[in-house]
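Example 9 (inverse folding). The structure is encoded as follows.
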């Protein structure tokens, strides 16, 4: 009986210790929870997500090469986040002057982020010389509806009558369309300078669209994130009570186990 007791003791102590490592990486910004793979602290989270999020006066900012966006939501279950660009056009305002960010990530970060397939980018006021319209002679414009959202509907927004440009030259042949809707997949980088566009809007549909019209669309950029692979390293680390992070090289993953950092997990010192 005593033998059984002593055999079970180390296991008991181990599992108690495992739960006891303090997670210094999880945090909040306003009412948004920041958890793996994201982090606000250097050395926390996944290396692909380093130097990405910043909390400024309880406002969470997402910083990539095309600019800074406000994070409206992080959905850990669906691995997605919703971004807002203040210079993005909506149904109420059309912002011209190429002030918007668009969406482009650094090459090294590209595998981790992709706007979702049901996110539409509506490019506004692009020049006839835009790469968007090159290589698409005749009727083959890249512009199309995405998830039931497109420029035809978007032209119905009050913002268009405010700028007084509603639907000018909508058809190819009489100049480029005033608005061209694309899925991120079809062009990969939404760079207003490169595409020679004056502005853009972005909308996404969470549920199948009941086609309530453009005033009911959700405006913002819905981005899918992925840590690549199945992230066995972090799962093994967390299973032993550790917190996932990375080393000062910004590449190698680390398992933080209290006073000790392990290159595998907390059970193997
Ligand atoms: C967070 O707060 C904002 C307003 O400050 C609110 O619109 C939003 O719904 C809140 N989000 C959650 C997840 O509570
Ligand atoms: C463990 O790694 C984290 C993140 O790189 C670092 O901040 C911390 O100082 C390290 N701790 C030890 C004990 O080396
Ligand atoms: C956008 O395109 C312009 C012109 O090609 C380029 O100078 C700029 O670096 C690009 N921006 C991003 C974020 O890729
Ligand atoms: C899609 O685009 C066409 C014009 O190309 C438009 O007539 C139609 O109403 C659009 N919307 C949907 C939901 O298909």
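The amino acid assigned to each position is listed next.
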């Amino acid at each position: 009986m005593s033998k059984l007791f002593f055999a079970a003791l180390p296991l008991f102590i181990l599992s108690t210790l495992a739960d006891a490592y303090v997670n210094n990486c999880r945090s909040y910004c306003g009412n948004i929870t920041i958890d793996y793979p994201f982090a606000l602290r250097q050395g926390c989270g996944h290396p692909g997500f380093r130097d990405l999020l910043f909390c400024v006066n309880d406002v969470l900012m997402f910083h990539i090469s095309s600019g800074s966006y406000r994070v409206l939501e992080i959905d850990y279950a669906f691995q997605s986040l919703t971004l807002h660009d203040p210079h993005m056009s909506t149904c109420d305002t059309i912002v011209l002057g190429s002030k918007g960010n668009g969406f482009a990530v650094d090459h090294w970060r590209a595998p981790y982020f992709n706007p979702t397939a049901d996110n539409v980018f509506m490019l506004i006021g692009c020049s006839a010389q835009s790469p968007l319209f090159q290589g698409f002679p005749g009727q083959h414009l890249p512009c199309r509806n995405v998830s039931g959202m497109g420029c035809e509907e978007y032209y119905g927004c009050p913002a268009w009558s405010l700028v007084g440009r509603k639907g000018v030259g909508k058809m190819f042949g009489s100049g480029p369309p005033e608005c061209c809707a694309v899925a991120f997949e079809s062009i990969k980088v939404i760079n207003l300078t490169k595409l020679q566009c004056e502005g853009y809007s972005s909308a996404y549909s969470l549920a199948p669209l009941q086609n309530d019209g453009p005033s009911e669309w959700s405006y913002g950029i819905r981005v899918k994130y992925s840590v690549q692979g199945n992230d066995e390293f972090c799962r093994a680390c967390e299973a032993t009570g550790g917190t996932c992070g990375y080393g000062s090289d910004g590449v190698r993953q680390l398992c933080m186990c209290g006073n000790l950092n392990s290159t595998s997990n907390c059970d193997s010192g």
